[in-house]
User: Fold this.
Amino acid sequence: MVLGLGIDTGGTFTDAAVVDLDTKKVIAKAKAPTTYHDLSIGIASAIEQVVRMGGFDVKEIYLVGLSTTLATNSLLTGKGGEVGLIGMGWKPADDWVLGCKIARFVKGEFDSLGRMVEPQDEEELSAAIREVAKDVDAIVISGMFSVTNPWHEEHAAELVRQLTNLPVVTGHSLTGELGIKERTITAVLNARLLPVIEEFLTAVKSALTAMNIKARILVFKGDGGLMSLEVAMKTPVETILSGPAASLMGGKALAQLDDCIVVDVGGASTDIAFLEGGFPRLDLDGAIVGEWRTRVKAIDMWTCGLGGDSLVSLTEDGDLLIGPQRVVPLAVASTMKDDFNQRLLAAQDTTFYVIGKSDLTNLNSSERKVHDFIAANGPSTLYETMDGTPDVVLVNESIRSLMKRGNLLRTGLTPTDIMHLTGEYIRGDAEASRIGLQILAQKMDSDPDKLAERIMTRVVTRIGEEIVKKAMADAIGPMPSSKQTDAMLHAAMGETVFHRLSLRATLDRPIVGIGAPASILVRPLEKRMEARIIIPENYDVGNAVGAVCSEMTESTSIEISPVGDKFMLFWQFSAPMQFSHLEEAVSSARTQVERYVTERLTIARATDIKVRVQREDVRFSDGYGKEMKFVNAVFVRATGTGKPSLDDIPTR
Assistant:
């Protein structure tokens, strides 16, 4: 039997699943708390648990697939290596934040047609390299229009290798898309992640070795495919949004469907994605991480702040509001302190504060005092914290700052608490959930049991509404935010809104629900929508299954533009090429992109390689919105997939 081990680090838990790679049957599964300060600890714990479950021999594990939040978390929290940037042929605007420690801008520019506008100055470039190389971990080279002609970047990178021992990242090697700001940010973020991913993957390999697992390790990308360990070490930025991507591919694997809507319900959010013909739809504009827009291709995922741990609160007009803020469920908070329930009753308020992440760097004295008090006495209310830190003038401001950094979390009533009361899901103290529900019911002058039912109904409604929003956004763009829109969405999900009008949403493909609460929160949509709902077996570890049951992927694209009476072919990996006829240029582009992805997958040791080549003609519209006859540009894109080769696994 050939087994795979899938590992996914989620917002609350790290999941591990051992899967028969032939049948996609889950042999064993386990969960461990995600350890944000060091993700490898939670991963090691999940691996140890799933191995202890037995039912298989670790020698049968030939493949490990890893879906990690490391890249996203590291960039959001400012972690990573220091980067020196050399820009060629351009200078940033005053308000650009590029993420590097030091930057120098030198001569050397191509235009949009790949023609040299300004040559490099070898002495200037060498001096700039020596200057930025001081006290950094990597150097980035980013040249204007390098995607139409990469020569300047490649020459500068070679000079970096000659003058330093530092790793070097070029902008054109990561993306073929235009946009010097976004391309530079992508390269800088990738360089920042190089030492982080190396340390992390080394720790994961050690954890696997400790459990005597000798297998090929692959890392999940944000575009829904796997990449080799060697590629991950060089391009860690590709792992941005790998978790949501793994959920989509896990839903596909578990449901064995190529056309479906995957809905992954987690603790903090619900992710929704459409799968067509076995391929995920990609967001070609690039993934966004915090303040940075990148050129990293990622699955076109619709994410909303709605999950099991979403805060249940009231709007200004007294209606129920679910999310978007994530809080610690009362049932979980109660396990942190023996007298929590009594204090909850006394306060008649569900807002307490508990410790979050342990990184205390850059805290001022007031923030540290507030943090230390809550660490010793929490969960604590605002007033308890004020009494315990009398020398802190503005406790509220310190709490807000600590929450923004993630050092503090707040508690609150959540759908998870309601599931504790119904017995559908238990991970804490249901008595605390009951008290919290009573507190909210008193504020609403409502019966607690009816309020609990109303909360769960609203959560299911919200999930259905987000599916409709995603479908509408794909078709005509985002829906406007208004009371009228909300009323129509409520009605479409079966809530009584209009006296003389009945609405019902109809979908053209099944909905596959995964994530721990999926059976409770997604299955009821079958009565609300004209859609088939599938909650596959082992839906609770769908992300981990996706991390190991997906294929290796590679993609690239070429742009063809008319220039005078000729057609120019632009590709990030070669100098521009000129053709007399459009179809001649398209034929050459098809050959090049197909050869490229095939070679890349072959080098990555993939088998059963399949390549899909697509052509997109772009035409200008006239002043009346009618598409004109003449082609403005042609894009030839290739996407290749292949199964990971398992023929050269280390001796067992």
In short: Residues 451-542 form one domain.
